[in-house]
Write a structure and sequence with these properties.
231 residues, 8 strands, binds pyridoxal-5'-phosphate, 8-stranded parallel β-sheet
Length: 231
């Protein structure tokens, strides 16, 4: 094993232990918390090393960075999640190369992804990105808009509604991180009352996973703690 692969294996293991520790602290079953490894800017060899260490789901933000990796690692059975900003002229690549898209926040994108998802593939798993901080420059739908977006996804035969994703305003303070995540959770629970089949609340990154676990996250998106600082 190369030194890079060895280091990665250790970081993955310590991340999993940290998740288990926080789960125990907040009385949660760690099996209900998935780890998405965010591999943006990292080479395919490191993704393969993480895969060899038992990590099966990866998140990417930039299509030009992701597509060569997805091609290089075809046949591995990796589950790819698109977690970057969606430009409407790039939806075809998302619809044909990814298993999940977590950053859907407008109807036009929903229609395009539904039309472009190939019949030969499983429906594309969709999370609606919600913006709970009212930061107008930021991506994500307002909580008020979620119902209509969820209806649009539910009516799209090539898409499968799975839940909600959020990137709350950055804070170093546990209590304010937790308050933001609680607002995301409220959106998720309101949606789940209408769509009981949804199962994914994607929130929490390297710097705020403890607060996210405290507030019920079922999917953590972790980059830096696993792969180190971005290139
Ligand atoms: C980069 C990124 C992450 C991972 O962030 P880290 O702080 O490196 O863990 C998670 N989610 C999204 C949407 C990202 O863009």
């Amino acid at each position: 094993m190369t030194p890079d692969a060895e280091r990665l294996r250790k970081k993955l293991e310590s991340t999993r232990l940290e998740i288990a520790r926080h789960a125990a602290e907040f009385g949660r079953d760690p099996a209900g918390i998935r780890l998405l490894a965010v591999s943006k800017t990292k080479p395919a060899e490191l993704v393969r090393a993480a895969l060899d260490a038992g990590q099966d789901a990866f998140g990417e933000n930039y299509l030009q960075d992701a597509l060569p990796k997805i091609e290089a690692l075809a046949e591995t059975g990796i589950e790819w999640h698109f977690i970057g900003a969606i430009q409407s002229n790039k939806t075809r690549d998302i619809a044909t190369c990814f298993d999940w898209v977590q950053t859907v926040d407008r109807e036009k994108i929903i229609r395009r992804l539904d039309t472009q998802r190939p019949e030969s593939m499983e429906p594309l798993n969709v999370l609606l990105q919600v913006n709970v901080d009212d930061e107008t420059q930021k991506a994500g739908a307002s909580p008020d808009a979620l119902d209509a977006l969820a209806d649009a996804v539910a009516d799209a035969p090539r898409l499968r509604l799975r839940g909600v994703m959020a990137i709350p305003k950055h804070s170093e303070d546990f209590a304010s991180q937790r308050a933001s995540f609680a607002r995301v959770r409220a959106c998720y629970e309101a949606l789940q009352a209408r769509f009981p089949q949804i199962d994914t609340l994607s929130m929490g990154m390297s710097g705020d996973l403890r607060a996210a676990i405290a507030e019920g996250s079922t999917m953590l998106r972790i980059g830096t703690s696993i792969f180190g600082p971005r290139d």
